What we know:
The chain has three domains: about 10-40, no CATH class; about 50-90; about 95-130. By secondary structure, it is mainly α. The protein has helices at about 10-25, 30-40, 45-85, 95-120, 125-130. The protein is built from five helices and no strands. Helix 1 (about 10-25) packs across helix 2 (about 30-40).
Amino acid sequence: MRIKHTIRLPPKLSSHLVDYAARKRVTQALVVETALASFLSPDSSERMEAALTRRLDRMSRQLERLERDVEIANEAISLFVQFWLTTTPPLPESELKAAKISGKARHADFIAALGERVGGHNRVARDIERQTAPTATD
């Protein structure tokens, strides 16, 4: 069911309506109906703002996770260095050359293992989450 409305338009706007409807080969009523529906619905700037807000919220959550992961990495490195410096005595001068050679080989092994870890899906942060997440029995 349709309800009839009578409106008055300025002559210039009326001629634009007639020309547009003729070019598009639609009725003037359809043009007015579509324009009115568009005018009364949320405008594109409101839709863009809503989409932007959702995107910014998602980015905020991603940054929070990134910040947490960086804090974990910093703490892990700090604990490791503190532990290593506390438990490792200095080497005598006679053993330094052999230690440097061994250190280079161990460093190469470390880099290879790190590359595999970063390239795969087995990450330290996920390991920590799995180990610290509450279980069903908790």
